[in-house]
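#onboarding

Welcome to the new folks! Below is a worked example of what a typical request in this channel looks like: someone posts a single protein sequence, and someone else replies with the predicted structure as tokens. Don't worry about understanding the tokens yet, we'll cover that in week two.

Example request:
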Amino acid sequence: MADFDDRFALALAAQRAVDVFNVVPCQAGGPTRALRLISLAEAAGLNVLLGSTVELSPGTAVSLHVGVAGKGVTVASDLVGPGLLEGDVCVTPLGYTNGGLEVGRFRGLGLELSEEQLTHYRV
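Example response:
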């Protein structure tokens, strides 16, 4: 859904041209627009899943927060980035327990950035 403007998303919903909206918060332009797309789908009676572009822990945490805030997310999602990547920019990357994504333990997104890792991955 991120590649389309809101009018196109509305048209897809109005024409029942899709069964599910795949919302990727980082591609949608951030959490605000992602939540708007989720609300649009929810109002149209469409299912929603959160997609991923295999983000590091901060991007995955944004998606996790969007999923909790956007009550219209009704399809199991694959927020698997931190589980697939060899490194991360957080002191303690997000983890998984019994197939579920763990919520961070700090304020905000729940993560603590690692200055060392930020320096290491700086381009």
